[in-house]
Amino acid sequence: MNLWQSIIPESLEFPQRLLVLLVIPLLAGAYILLSRRRNRKGMRFSNTALLQIAMPGASRWRRHLAVAMALLSLVLMAVAWAKPIGLDRERVERATVVVVLDVSQSMAATDVEPSRIDAAKTAAIDFVGTIPETYNVSLVTLSGNPSVVVPPTTNHASVNNAIDRLELRDATALGESIIVALNALGQAPAADNGEPPPGAIVILSDGGSTEGRPGIQAAQQAKADEVPIYTIAYGTANGYVELDGQREPVPVEDAELREVAEATGGEALEAGSAEQLADVYEQLSTEIGYELVQRDVTARYAMYAAVFALLAALSTISLSARWPS
Question: Domain check: are 145 and 217 in the same one?
Fold first, then answer.
């Protein structure tokens, strides 16, 4: 949830109560008229130095600020009276996370020490360790022949053991791997209410498809199933592998991965080192497994109103205080 969502309510239970806000422009207009009348009276002073002493610029600005904060407090009180409904992040009790790891030959590149695949295994195992015990975790390999290595299970140790045993294969079929991951999500046991638990797919890869259906085509299916896909483009532009005695460059390619993530409402991330990959997985652990729920946030807006009312009061007090020069 971003800052805008925390400030602007999703809806109001009694929106008609906001009609009381019509009094705010009337109060603001009255203040402006009174200020102008006061300024006109001030111009009658023949001694401008005496006028500056009577109403210095700093005092005028503090007076304007006090009024502005008082009006803002009234606005927030009106919103609170309308009983705003906001969005809050709440961790769900059960969910399914499918970890998709690229095991294509390009993952043997050593631009990431000790190699892309070894660093990816270590980071993925650490990531699984951060997933709540009540969550199902599944492991899918990303290659020319993707497969479900471990179906959804709460036995996270078995997932980590399977990650450690992964071996490299040929080709990269990103779209097919997404379909296999979606099928894995379908194998997760239903929740107590009979509904399937929410799911997410996390894909780590160093490039786009070399065969099979395009990733965006499979992403459309994930979008229809309301499954966000988080992608991690892993590696650097300087990666290479030795194939048949020849050096083949395998720079990381993130375009298709980014397209997949954006199409499903997930997030496209990048990592060019083992340390960055660990940070990316740590970020994902704080995002996956949460859902936005509607809550009555009247108290929040009442608190905002009280804060601005207090600031307005302090500003008013400062007007009458004599500060040492």
Answer: yes
